[in-house]
Request: fold
Amino acid sequence: MQTYRRFVSYVYQYENGKKAGNRGFIKVEARGNTCSMQISLKGICKDENASCTVYGFKREDGLLKGSRLAECPVRMGVVQELLVFARNEMGEAKYGLQELSGVIFQGDDQTMYGTQWDDDPMKMKNFQPDEKNEAMAEYASVPAEEAKNRERWDESKVGEWVSDGAPDLEV
Reply:
């Protein structure tokens, strides 16, 4: 049986490879075979209505190997998203939550934002997104056009977004 795991991690902007400022947080909750990530970011991307790509990463041979998890809409510099995955198959590379070392966000303007869940330094110059993920731009996420219409995920209806009946992700 999978253990219950829940935590909050702060997301920082990285400029010239250095941590520059807090831009928000991500709440992660793993229960059973499901993992949800509630993302709340502010002051990102220079374009008014842009998008940012979300990568889960694991450390491998000194690199931050990224697996694309989703494409999130940015509205007036704000991202408010709830992503839900199978706990052991996240993104194109099918990383499990236990393999991930954190999450990296890349804005349309190529600005990098990230959070790490371990004690190793986060060096953005070592970030390497999975090339397969670039070709699978629509995989593992609900299209951005639908994001504004959804509020919560109902685990009993796998693959469907609904507006009620799901547990809150309060931490």
